[in-house]
Write a structure and sequence with these properties.
The chain has 409 residues and is an alpha/beta fold. It is built from 18 helices and nine strands. The strands form two sheets. It has a seven-stranded mixed beta sheet with strand order 5-4-3-6-7-9-8, with helices on both faces. 39% of the residues are buried.
Length: 409
């Protein structure tokens, strides 16, 4: 730790990063309750810097959480916090999402998506890789580079969907068009991608034209719930599911089920949270105490993804079954997303000056802390990344083979 006056406090063991505290009142602002929210805001504000990989510093949040197990622990921590120095920077605010629409409305979804994804195509191009895929890559050996792993992810999804020429594919939340372009080029499908982001739509349309697949691919600015097309053979949702939220899961799965032909397949790829603990008083108390002390979800809601929310894979798949789907395959790619996020964070750091020029220092710092902490959350098992293959049965038949051998051949 390096203090604002140059004092260096060495680590007791091997040092993996340097925490640079930039002002006398920084520690007081950093360690307000809830911790994750205060640390995130303090970093974006410039109260401290992390010199090194962000995910190596993130376990400090876990250590804080583990140290406070009771009201007595909390009182002790608060007493220590009150002894930290103050300064005149306490009034400095951090700009977050300002969603004006009613929560849960279509406009609420639209504003939330555009807050995050319309930050600028040039900004995202700095760290997402050649295909600009803003979702978990696939590392069969763990040693692939980002561009290779992202192309392998697209192939993995297409194989799971058992695509073949002439089929109609819908990509819900198509981003910058990576999947629909790949599926058209490699498998000859006719693909429709929908997004709510104006920036994504503009670049995806341009990339479709550059790839020479305008005759096979269309990209629209459209809410998936407004689709009233002839049924599709296949549907994919890759990294969009997180924006749905628990209360709207029945609507989500029911609408996608209605968009599929009998016998069709749906690949749902999304981040999963932890399932709710049991109903005991002790567990409920611990959950409330942890959220009030740490509040990791609050930072994400205010500054990263202001709409939607995370559910566990078991909750999601139960709702899918209630909508009429049969669960055919579930794969957890948690470690793959940890690696993807690490590579994104490294790419962002490598292009720091350009990122600051395009988006400003606050955006650079906001994305850096988000990518680094998320990498640690996946590595630690706090979050999962699940690909679930769902089938709409046709008289008991599903369009899948007897084994998974075709996925890896």
């Amino acid at each position: 730790m390096r203090l604002w006056d140059g004092t260096l406090l060495p680590a007791p063991g091997e040092s993996t990063f340097t925490l640079a505290v930039n002002a006398p009142g920084s520690l007081r602002r950093m360690f307000r309750v809830p911790l994750a929210l205060s640390l995130g805001e303090a970093y974006v504000r410039g109260d401290f810097d992390l010199e090194g990989e962000v995910w190596t510093a993130a376990p400090g949040i876990q250590a804080y959480r583990d140290a406070v197990r009771s009201p007595a622990d909390l009182r002790e921590v608060l007493a220590l916090w009150r002894r930290l120095p103050k300064d005149d920077r306490d009034g400095t605010s951090v700009e977050g999402a300002r969603i004006q629409a009613r929560e849960g409305s279509r406009q609420w979804d639209l504003e939330g998506i555009r807050y995050h994804y319309d930050a600028g195509n040039d900004f995202y191009r700095l760290f997402l890789g050649r295909r600009m895929l803003y979702s978990c890559a696939y590392f069969p050996t763990g040693g692939e580079d980002l561009d290779t792993a992202q192309e392998l992810k697209l192939e993995h999804i297409c194989r799971k969907l058992r695509l073949h020429e002439g089929q109609r594919l819908l990509d819900v939340g198509c981003g910058w068009g990576g999947l629909v372009i790949y599926a058209a080029q490699r498998y000859g499908v006719r693909a429709l991608g929908v997004t709510l982001s104006r920036e994504q739509h503009a670049l995806a349309t341009e990339r479709v034209r550059e790839a020479g697949v305008e005759h096979l691919v269309e990209v629209r600015i459209q809410d998936y719930r407004d689709l009233r097309e002839e049924p599709f053979d296949r549907v994919a949702s890759v990294g969009m599911f997180e924006h749905v939220g628990r209360r709207r899961l029945p609507e989500y799965f029911a609408h996608v089920h209605g968009l599929l032909k009998p016998g069709g397949l749906f690949l749902n790829h999304g981040i999963g949270g932890r399932p709710s603990p049991g109903r005991s008083v002790r567990r409920a108390t611990q959950r409330v105490l942890t959220e009030r002390l740490v509040g990791s979800a609050e930072f994400r809601r205010r500054y990263i993804f202001p709409t939607g929310g995370l559910v566990s894979v078991s909750e999601a798949n139960l709702e899918a079954e209630r909508a009429g789907f049969e669960v055919r395959d579930v794969e957890n790619l948690r470690e793959h997303y940890a690696r993807t996020l690490q590579l994104w964070a490294q790419g962002l750091d490598a292009n720091r000056d350009e990122a600051v020029r395009i988006g400003g220092m606050a955006m650079y710092r906001l994305r850096r802390i988000h990518l680094g902490v998320a990498a640690w959350q996946f590595a630690a098992g706090d979050l999962t990344l699940n690909q679930t293959l769902l089938a709409k049965l046709d008289g008991g038949r599903a369009s899948v083979p007897w084994s998974r051998a075709d996925l890896y051949g």
